[in-house]
Design goal:
Blueprint (H helix, E strand, L loop, with lengths): L10 E7 L3 H9 L7 E7 L5 E5 L2 E5 L1 H4 L2 E3 L1
Antiparallel strand pairs: 1-2, 1-5, 2-3, 3-4
Amino acid sequence: MYLSDVKNGAIATVKHIDSGCEMYRRILELGIFPGTRLKILQNVPEGPVIFEKNGSKMILGRGMAQKIRVE
């Protein structure tokens, strides 16, 4: 399952990032690594994914969220 598939209110743990070098680097710069826990605040079908990581609210575009595998 990808971050873009997680329902509102759920907590997901990052397992793997499926992307090229540039996007992978950008995701890591945001502090999103395998093992990171994310609480999904808002995930709508055609918009960005809004989540909380360590008490901070973050937003990822759908394209990036579709590259982050979670469980």
